[in-house]
Structure to design on (858 residues):
């Protein structure tokens, strides 16, 4: 079978998955948790092969760290599955009901999207997490993991497929792709695949977005801003800059550009410089910034750069509206924060900054599905439609309209013999 | 200014529109209603020019009918604006709120999508309706109407722009495109335009979908099915077939293929044949159908054809599941109905048919924003993400996450010094 056959199979499986009841889905998830525990040794063995091979290939230390799937990671995956079992059934939920006329009732009911294609990098725990979220939400899934994690992904998929067959899940609902060629083919299969979720480097996500007609959910850049308003508390502004920039530099919600109101710059920047020096953060600044503290000159290009490193660009702005305009021009619509003691200023900032996540007096690092309390996340979206910000189970759902009548025809309404009542109902289907 | 400049301007306007309050938006809508009444004569004069020119160009009678914008149509547009004023504010609504920790509160708040590109055919009332829906939902809009309606669209846009300026709406929030070349350019402007809504012929919508990276909301085909189950009431099945097929043949929610359970075919088909003959509907059938009634042979291609005409293809199926499989294979995910007296059968059909609108004992013609009670609609979507079925105001919205803290940093949670509470709040922002 080639990838097109697998995609067709996934499509067929997705049509059946839509009607599988909660108990069966939860049985699957619980059994998968047990199977992961039962196969712990085999999984760790496969993962050690991946690590050994990757080490000889000389991959970077952070990548190696993410590749590791040990007892602790397996325990985490198991506990993730157990929490997923506890989440309420997301499919078949009546979102609203309306009587169109006597005996003619309309229900908007949640349902799965269909077939999801997920492409993720080296972390093997993502395979368990994403496939389980898809199953719980009734979606079939084609997965492509990082090349480095091949053996780990293979054994995890083998376990998933075995448990699927034991619990009589529709055959082919989950399939592991192994080559880049397969990913390329998948991007053309808009007949069978309803949504692509790419996780990984900017270049990679952009490549996906540029090469498919299938809707893509995710984000390329994370050019996040912190704006220090003239009404900011200087200590708080420094603490939030330190956390946003340095708590974990290589992630999408880390700070890249600091905007500072001109009236507070002289108080704030020298103290900031000290804090950044302690964390060994390299500073790049606009001319006005460089008149106050020493920093390399920031070029136009810096405002568009996601460093993902111990580097921070700084710009002094004349006003709140200039800060907002800068963010809307150079930002990536991911996460942007303001530090201010003024509520009106904060409200205006959060209203006018066109980003998925807008924060007042909090670190940009909070934009994350787990921290938001969404449970597991499939990724963070900077899309302007469907789902925005951290995306959990809900982003894997859509709805359908179910209309129940008793032989109702439109002619009667078109000819004025009957009238619509359009009365909201407090009913579930 | 060229179309790129207009798109940039619309983008800037959209950023401001997001924060305009309800009263100002409603003032605009009310003043526009008055302005339409005040300029009634000029509008009708412009429309007569369009009609006269189109007649000499020999456009079809149905197109001419849709082009007409007379006193009655203006009154309808005015009453549409008045109902839109009465609708509750859709922007800035807290969809949920959660305490992440003491003093750290997350709000999911509705907001506009940004800039919408709408391409519609000859009906000038669509221009007023769509631009008003966009304004109420805080979106900027680039509109391209049919060439036939050029003069009418021009004067309507002129009135809209005048009223916008009187009510101080952000300049450039609405702009009328006039050439196909402009539409082509618009499809490439994914930097400024967030969503394209095409209304029109299948070929046209498919052309749009195939030629842009901007998300497209809409539908190409409407290949709708009615499945007559073995537990159907024959009279009801005939009445629903007549209404679904003939109440208005040239629309997307009209019936194209009738599926009949083999056990009821002998009772149902002769009576149906009589009803279809009365309405002059040409029948095409599978072999089993043609053993019972006279009909032209249906080819494989017929199951994929949207006739939009007095033509109906008929197929006899062995079971409910065969009917479902046929619909999921050949349908377009638009509207599909079952006629049956059996609730379990109906529930299974509505669960497993993967379409935006699934009906039990009701005509396919009901799938429409007005009939659903959504108010005006911008179109019907067969997308699997964002919005499905008839799309009203809600489909023009997305949300953003607003997080309010008091200097909260992630390090404290990552290092275990603080724990998330994740407590649902009953609060609005």
């Amino acid at each position: 079978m080639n990838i097109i056959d697998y995609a067709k199979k996934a499509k067929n499986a997705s049509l059946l998955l839509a009607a599988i009841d909660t108990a069966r889905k939860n049985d699957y998830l619980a059994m998968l948790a047990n199977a992961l525990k039962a196969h712990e040794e085999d999984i760790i063995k496969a993962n050690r092969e991946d690590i050994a091979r990757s080490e000889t290939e000389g991959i970077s230390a952070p990548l190696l760290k993410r590749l590791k799937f040990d007892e602790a990671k397996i325990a985490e995956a198991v506990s993730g599955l157990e929490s997923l079992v506890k989440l309420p059934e997301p499919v078949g939920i009546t979102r609203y009901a309306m009587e169109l006329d006597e005996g003619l009732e309309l229900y908007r009911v949640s349902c799965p999207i269909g077939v999801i294609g997920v492409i993720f990098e080296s972390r093997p725990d993502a395979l368990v997490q994403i496939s389980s979220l898809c199953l719980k939400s009734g979606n079939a899934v084609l997965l492509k993991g990082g090349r480095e994690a091949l053996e780990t992904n293979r054994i995890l998929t083998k376990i998933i497929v075995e448990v699927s067959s034991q619990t009589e899940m529709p055959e082919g609902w989950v399939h592991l792709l192994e080559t880049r060629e397969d990913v390329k083919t998948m991007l053309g299969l808009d007949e069978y695949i309803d949504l692509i979720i790419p996780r990984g480097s900017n270049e990679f996500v952009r490549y996906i977005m540029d090469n498919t007609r299938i809707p893509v959910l995710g984000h390329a850049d994370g050019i996040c801003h912190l704006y220090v308003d003239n009404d900011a508390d200087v200590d708080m502004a420094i603490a939030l800059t330190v956390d946003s920039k340095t708590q974990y530099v290589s992630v999408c919600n880390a700070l890249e550009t600091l905007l500072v109101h001109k009236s507070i710059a002289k108080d704030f920047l020298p103290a900031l410089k000290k804090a950044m020096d302690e964390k060994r953060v390299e500073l790049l600044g606009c001319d006005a910034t460089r008149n106050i503290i020493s920093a390399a000159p920031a070029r136009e290009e810096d405002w568009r750069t996601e460093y993902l490193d111990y580097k921070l660009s700084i710009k002094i702005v004349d006003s709140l509206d200039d800060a907002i305009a800068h963010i809307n021009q150079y930002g990536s619509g991911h996460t942007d924060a303001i530090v201010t003691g003024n509520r009106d200023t904060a409200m205006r900032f959060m209203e006018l900054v066109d980003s998925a996540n807008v924060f007042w007096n909090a670190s940009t690092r909070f934009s994350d599905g787990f921290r938001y309390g969404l449970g597991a996340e499939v990724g963070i979206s900077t899309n302007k439609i469907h789902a925005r910000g951290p995306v959990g189970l809900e982003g894997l759902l859509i709805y359908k309209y179910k209309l129940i009548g008793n032989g109702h025809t439109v002619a009667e309404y078109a000819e004025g013999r009957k009238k619509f009542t359009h009365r909201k109902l407090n009913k579930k289907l």
